[in-house]
Amino acid sequence: MKKERFQGLELLATAVVVSNLEGVVLYANLSAETLLEVSRRSLDGQALAALFVEANAFREFLNKSHADPFGVKRQVFELIRPSGTSEHVHVTLSCPDGANGVTIIELREIEQQLKVDREARMMDQSLANKELIRNLAHEIKNPLGGIRGAAQLLEIELPSPELKEYTQVVIKESDRLQTLVDRLLAPHRKPHIVSMMNIHEVCERVRSVILAEHPKGLKFIRDYDISIPEFLGDLEQLIQAILNIVRNAAQALTSQIAEGTAQITLCTRVVRRVTLNRKQHRLALDLQVIDNGPGIPTEIMERIFFPLVSGREGGSGLGLTLAQTFVQQHEGIIECSSTPGRTLFKVTLPLQFDHATS
């Protein structure tokens, strides 16, 4: 059987193996070779069941799928590698119409599946947040002008200067809410201006701003991969996104800054064959912001990207929301993990070099 017909599977980040009705491997893509830790030449002609701890159970699963070829069958099996390591994977079988006895087997690491599901939930939540923010901001903004104007007119009519203190409170609070609303609506108003940019220019700009705000007690560790090429992006949006993340980290390091032990690490790397928001990208940027602060409270960990959620007294709860919005406008994602003494924000962005590639 000519393997050229399966070349399209090379574009997938998911491990895919093609077998005949007897479960003999006819083809495996590069992702399968990586997952199984076996060369494709070695896989060719091998019984697929031999790759699993429960070989008999896999054969039975395969036979049942052939007996009922309609639909897609899924089950979890334990994969065994030549090195002796094992891993549980989701196995999905399908027998496409007109495939002449060919079975397509998708192998997905459970951790990868959880990551895909988590990204999908984050994207759905982000879209819901954006809609909520827009609606809420407009509902707040409409009466604000009337409230402020009424307070100004009332102030003119008041006979006592002491009473004007109260109208000034109304005016100032109206202005504060107006500023807040403008910040909420800013990402949706500002055009997405794309040009070739260097991620290390972003990092250095952010570093200089934060060091100006905290000239003593804070140390930056720069771990840059200088081979990362320039790519298409909105420079100002990415500066703002990374600035919000790093400023968040610096504000969490108050005690460490006072002691002179505060550290923020900026680390850049290139990663290959990455799937972001269910779309595969050949190359992606991995930018990590790591601090040695107290960590994010567990009670807000799942909600840190929600608007108006802050773990800091007096925080607006908008910095990370805006950072996520700007990163998602670049088809990227932000992930976070936190334990006392180490908080990591990881920004993954597809590297695009022209308007047609990703």
Descriptive overview:
Strand 3 and strand 4 (86-94) form a beta hairpin. Helix 4 packs antiparallel against helix 5 (164-189), helix 6 runs parallel beside helix 7 and helix 7 packs antiparallel against helix 9 (319-328). The protein folds into three domains: 8-110, 2-Layer Sandwich (Beta-Lactamase), CATH 3.30.450; 115-189; 195-350, Heat Shock Protein 90. With 358 residues, it is an alpha+beta fold. The protein contains nine helices and twelve strands.
Q: Brief description of this entry?
A:
The protein is α+β, with helices and mostly antiparallel strands and 358 residues long. It has helices at residues 30-36, 40-43, 55-67, 110-157, 164-189, 199-213, 235-252, 254-259, 319-328, and strands at residues 15-19, 25-28, 72-80, 86-94, 103-109, 195-197, 218-223, 231-233, 262-276, 279-291, 333-339, 342-350.
Offer a few descriptive terms:
358 residues, alpha+beta, Beta-Lactamase, Heat Shock Protein 90, 3 domains, five-stranded mixed sheet, 12 strands, 41% helix, 25% strand
Cα shape: elongated
What is the strand arrangement across the widest sheet? 2-1-5-4-3
Q: Kindly state the number of beta strands.
A: 12
Return the average pLDDT rounded to an integer.
82
- Report the portion of residues in β strands: 25-35%
Q: Termini, distance in Å?
A: 32 Å
What is the domain total for the residues? Answer: 3
Specify the structural class. alpha+beta
Q: What is the CATH superfamily label of the largest domain?
A: Histidine kinase-like ATPase, C-terminal domain
Low-confidence sequence ranges: none
CATH topology of the largest domain: Heat Shock Protein 90
Radius of gyration: 27 Å
- Helix amount, in percent? 40-55%
DSSP helix count? 9
Element order, helices and strands? EEHHHEEEHHEHEEHHEEHEE
CATH level 1 name of the largest domain: Alpha Beta
Can you summarize the main beta sheet? Answer: 5 strands, antiparallel
